[in-house]
Structure formats: structure tokens, C-alpha cells
């Protein structure tokens, strides 16, 4: 596997410019800012990575899924940790902005994991389930209620442990 090392210069307006094609080692990726702060390799990603908090039984539930689904959902959550949105992550229609649903299919079954990026600097995984709704595409009411309840629990946890009294831009 070949890796491209690229030097980026970040402008004060937030734009990034690809400046060069350097060598082929993933451990030597270099990121430059306009004030010459450098990070190398994994340290760059660790500095950007948001911690994941699992609400209720969401982690245990996700780990019961087929390994292929666990891997895909784990990768999608990793993308979210670094501030991105995986193509299989769609906005959740029900609890406002900042809640996403990872949708995966395997062997004729549908699997879902819901997480929120509503709170600054942290990801909360709210619920993971195999979709068994009798009404086609509609998610079962019990799963919708679980997401709402766990979102409230995530907000309470965030306010208590991360920023007393502040819940990010969509937290209330």
C-alpha cells in the first residue's frame, strides 16, 4: 500500500492548499498551519480526535452485530471523531440537528447506530439496533423513544462532566 505525504498550508481564511508530494510513509504525514505549528503522523489525528461516549447499552448492542457491520460502523464513527461525516451517516429525523444515523445492510437485514455531534469536543453513541419495524422504512416507536431518552442522558452527562452549564450550540 502506498501513502502520499502531503504538506498543507492553512490560510487565515481556513482554506488549505496542497503544497507538495513528498515521500511514501504514513508515519511522516506533516500538517503545517500559518503559524508554523507541526504535528507528525498519528499525533496529528490524536489531537483532532474527539472521544466517544457510549450511552446505555449502545456499545454492547453494536458488538452483537455481524463483524462486517461492526467494522463499517466503527469506521463511520472514527470519521465522526475526526470531524467528518461518513457517506452512510444520514441526519436523524426526529431530535433536531446534530444527530446522525449510520445505516448498514447485511444479509437482508438492516442495522442502525445513532450518534450525536451536538456537544462540543465529544461524540455520544446513543443507540444501536437491528431494524425490525413492521411498517417498512419507519423506525419503531420504541427505538425513537430510546434515542430521545439517551440524547437527554448524553446532554446531562455533557453538562456534568465536560462543560458545566454549557451544552454546545445545539445542546438545549
Verbal overview:
The structure is a single chain. By secondary structure, this protein is α+β, with helices and mostly antiparallel strands. It folds into 2 domains: 6-48, no CATH class; 52-161, 2-Layer Sandwich (YaeB-like fold), CATH 3.30.2310. The chain has helices spanning 42-48, 58-62, 67-81, 141-161; strands spanning 6-10, 16-21, 30-32, 38-40, 52-54, 89-91, 99-106, 109-116, 123-131. The chain is globular and about 40 Å long. The model is unreliable at 1-39 (pLDDT under 50).
Gross CATH architecture of the largest domain = 2-Layer Sandwich
Q: Extract low-pLDDT stretches.
A: 1-39
- Find the CATH topology of the largest domain: YaeB-like fold
In sequence order, what are the helices and strands, one letter per element? EEEEHEHHEEEEH
Instruction: Kindly report how far apart the N and C termini lie.
Output: 45 Å
Task: Estimate the mean pLDDT confidence.
Answer: 75
Task: List the topology elements.
Layout: E1 6-10, E2 16-21, E3 30-32, E4 38-40, H1 42-48, E5 52-54, H2 58-62, H3 67-81, E6 89-91, E7 99-106, E8 109-116, E9 123-131, H4 141-161
Summarize the structure.
The chain has 172 residues and is of the alpha+beta class.
Features:
172 residues, alpha+beta, YaeB-like fold, five-stranded mixed sheet, four-stranded mixed sheet, globular, disordered N terminus
Amino acid at each position: 500500500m502506498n501513502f502520499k505525504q502531503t504538506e498543507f498550508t492553512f490560510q487565515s481564511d481556513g482554506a488549505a492548499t496542497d503544497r507538495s508530494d513528498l515521500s511514501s510513509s504514513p508515519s511522516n504525514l506533516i500538517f503545517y498551519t500559518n503559524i508554523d505549528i507541526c504535528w507528525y503522523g498519528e499525533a496529528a489525528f490524536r489531537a483532532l480526535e474527539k472521544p466517544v461516549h457510549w450511552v446505555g447499552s449502545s456499545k454492547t448492542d453494536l458488538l452483537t452485530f455481524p463483524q462486517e457491520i461492526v467494522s463499517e460502523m466503527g469506521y463511520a464513527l472514527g470519521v465522526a471523531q475526526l470531524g467528518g461525516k461518513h457517506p452512510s451517516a444520514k441526519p436523524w429525523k426526529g431530535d433536531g440537528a446534530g444527530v446522525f444515523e449510520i445505516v448498514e445492510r447485511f444479509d437482508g437485514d438492516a442495522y442502525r447506530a445513532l450518534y450525536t455531534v451536538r456537544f462540543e469536543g465529544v461524540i455520544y453513541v446513543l443507540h444501536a439496533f437491528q431494524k425490525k419495524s413492521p411498517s417498512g422504512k419507519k423506525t419503531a416507536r420504541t427505538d425513537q423513544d430510546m434515542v430521545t431518552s439517551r440524547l437527554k442522558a448524553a446532554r446531562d452527562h455533557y453538562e456534568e462532566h465536560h462543560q458545566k452549564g454549557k451544552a454546545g450550540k445545539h445542546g438545549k
